[in-house]
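Class, study these two lines:
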Amino acid sequence: MKKNKKDIQAKPWFKFYDEEGISTHIEYPDCSMVDMIMQSAEKWPDNTAYTYYGHKVTYKNFIKKIEKTARALKNYGVKEGDRVTICMPNTPEGITMVYAVNMVGAICNMVHPLSSEKELEYYIKVAESKYVLVIDAVFDKIYRLRDTAQLERIIVVRPSDGLGFLKKKLYNTLHIKRVRLPSNDSRVVLWEDFIANSYFYQGNYHEERSGNDPAIIMYSGGTTGAPKAVLLSNLNINAESICDGTMIRQIVPGATVLSILPIFHCFGLGICIHTPLCKGMGCILVPAFSHKQFADIIKKNNPNFIVGVPTLFEALINTKLKNDDLESVTAVICGGDALNQTLRDKVNDFLQNHGSKARIRVGYGLTEGSGAVCLSPEDQFADGIIGVPFPDTDFKIVKKDTHKELPAGEEGEICLSSPLVMMGYLGDDVETAQAIRLHDDGKVWLHTGDIGYIGEDGLVYFAQRLKRIIISSGYNIYPTHLESVINSHEAVLTSTVIGIDHHYKGQVPKAFVVLKPGYKPGKRLEREIRELLERNVPVYALPAAYEFRDKLPQTKVGKVAFRELEKEEKAKK
């Protein structure tokens, strides 16, 4: 049912809705994530749900796999409301587990496999998770946490588990190196045994859940930059898929999406997995992206959608393709970081020169907003544009540290009110209250920590980030977190981390370190600091460079003037 436009306060971006035939309001189903997928399977049972290294699985068989996995979870004691940690790349087991956990009424705790051991411990403990699904390559890190995190079950996946019989046999023959698993610990079970044991459970495994029930835990820096567990509901994720389908006309049953963005990233799970699966589309699962293999992936799969961060598109324009190799591509979406005009033009030229009529569109979003909340129109290309807000998603720009709304064209903090806004930060009411606030208009608004403005043309523009953040290959890196780890070294007085330009990743961290009296800089001390970071932060967040200084520039109020350091680095070029 659509609301009458008279019931909705007119917004400057509504003219784009009229041009594209987009509704200002959508009625969202009051159901779970898996219920949405099952509805797809009923409509398109023989469509391909996903492809994994050429192995295709239909919707009908995908649902059977989800149900079998749900029975296995119940057999191992997983109850409604439990938290199951999924520490996986994009494999069939990873996405199957997401929906199986949802089916039994539990909550998925999505974590990056490359996280440090300390981070994994934090993620598991803050979620109070007793069950972990993990790829074998990082099993050792999880296993070392078995007692401190009080884990009850560790389910181990090998990359070959999702392949067909012959391909699995070939893979296991070629990849002789295996991760050794303990033979006498009943808490550890291989995926194949976990699934086989599903037959021991014959009771109910499909719990009825509402849209407002929690479904997913993802991790974000919050408004302060410290790691925060973002709690998302079934409605949040389902609304994302419905809005995506409304905003992107190329989303049709049978189309395929190159699912490179990882499932532990909201953009990856929401846009590259859940949205296509709700629409009868096919996900081409890519567990580990390599720019060297990009051309082969495209040629073998002929995807209709390419969704990624700017570094992925840097890789795309440097691939060797024939003039018609991108003929299948109908939509190209970029998110995760700002897309500069030079790269945008290069991507559009590359698409056109290789047979595609698509033009790259820029999405804006954040984990606290369930992924994307805004998307640029197909025919609008200008620096800073992040586009048209999704249906039922209201944007306003407020003066920093206030609720005062600013007029069009004036920069301030971006706030949004939407069914996409998170439930809150798990276990952190103070930070939740800081991020989600009730305004005088009676609506609840998410303060994003980003600076932007609404143009006279009705489009939303991004200017800069209010909070300190480095984005490297689409991953968020929080300088304050790195600094707290560096400062814990006995020789360090203080430190500051900034982002420096990188030709491929966009930015990488650089650490400036001031030592305590009596300590001298050197390779040995640098190695100690680097090893300390390696134990506490993920690989992608490690500083690319270290610089020891006697002192750091300061502002008038005595804070480190990190902007001055950024200017110094740019001046070196």
